[in-house]
């Protein structure tokens, strides 16, 4: 009876997907965690990398920022090497590089299955700023102003409470609270660009 020849081992996932090493032109250390697609089999994926750790496709059309963000958000806690590499690299800015018009892709973490919203860009050249960025800045300033006003109002209430306090333990507690809210008010004054000394009297 003839022995059956053993079956060949199943192809590696990399072979099935036609993944290749990034190549000498892609020198960033972050490429060590990604594979590129073989363009003979995937001509539409010239600007796509596949994460070797989780199999997620990441766009590299705008550079390696997406690779960095993916590692920071998804894999930084998986090894000491990754934690060190991603911690030493500041999160790239999310402002679009295009200077005018509307762009269909935002530069950001590509983890969502939701369709990407379009971002209007105002200005031109190096002064181009996305409307989303401006909206976020305005909301942040509104939040900081609200927190500053809340701290100011609370300090006023605590001072009134302190004026009528008679037990030393209560007095100490109220004074500590006042100092805490003064520190908070000072912090938000700095964030808002207020003159801190003048803001104490505002």
Automatic annotation (TrEMBL):
GO molecular function list: zinc ion binding
Composition bias (Polar residues) maps to 91-101
Q: Does the keyword Coiled coil apply?
A: yes
Q: Could you tell me the keywords of this UniProt record?
A: Coiled coil, Metal-binding, Zinc, Zinc-finger
Q: Which domain of life is it from?
A: Eukaryota
Coiled-coil stretches are 148-175
In this chain, the stretch annotated as Disordered covers 1-24, 91-119
| Alphabetical list of SUPFAM superfamilies matching this protein | beta-beta-alpha zinc fingers
Domain BED-type per the UniProt entry, residue ranges: 25-82
This protein's record includes keyword Zinc: yes
* Protein name as it appears in the record: BED-type domain-containing protein
Species:
Cyclotella atomus
């Amino acid at each position: 009876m003839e022995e059956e020849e053993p079956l060949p081992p199943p192809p590696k996932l990399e072979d099935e997907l036609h993944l290749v090493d990034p190549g000498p032109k892609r020198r960033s250390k972050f490429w060590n965690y990604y594979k590129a697609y073989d363009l003979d089999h995937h001509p539409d994926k010239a600007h796509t990398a596949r994460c070797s750790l989780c199999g997620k496709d990441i766009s590299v059309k705008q550079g390696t920022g997406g690779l960095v963000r993916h590692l920071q958000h998804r894999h930084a806690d998986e090894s000491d090497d990754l934690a060190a590499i991603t911690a030493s690299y500041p999160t790239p800015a999310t402002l679009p590089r295009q200077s005018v018009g509307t762009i269909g892709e935002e530069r950001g973490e590509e983890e969502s299955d939701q369709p990407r919203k379009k971002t209007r860009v105002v200005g031109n050249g190096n002064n181009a700023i996305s409307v989303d960025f401006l909206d976020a800045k305005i909301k942040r300033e509104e939040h900081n102003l609200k927190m500053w006003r809340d701290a100011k109002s609370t300090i006023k209430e605590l001072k009134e409470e302190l004026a009528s306090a008679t037990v030393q333990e209560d007095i100490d507690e109220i004074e500590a609270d006042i100092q805490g809210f003064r520190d908070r008010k000072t912090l938000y004054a700095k964030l808002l660009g207020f003159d801190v000394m003048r803001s104490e009297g505002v």
